[in-house]
Amino acid sequence: MTHEEMLLWEHLRNSKLGVKFRRQHAIGDYIADFACISLGLVIEVDGGYHDSTEQKKEDEIRTMQLNALGFEVIRFSNEDINCRIESVLELLKEKINSPL
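Now predict its structure.
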């Protein structure tokens, strides 16, 4: 796991947000950074290489395929995790507590 993934994991592990998240969880042909199976939610933490045009296309395909498997994908940048972790957590709490 990257440094940013470890930082986020500290807030997700042991159901700290009220739901169980798994880290490095296989879904179809992919390994999701974090997945909440009960909510059908995948969290991806994207480093700088995700800014390239080619990687953006691959990420879009990955998201569409995960959507087709019934998962919503939320992406955060390393900068989001390092500089705005409280905002990230608030957004996740809203998502977790919103009606399905």
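The chain has a mean pLDDT of 92.
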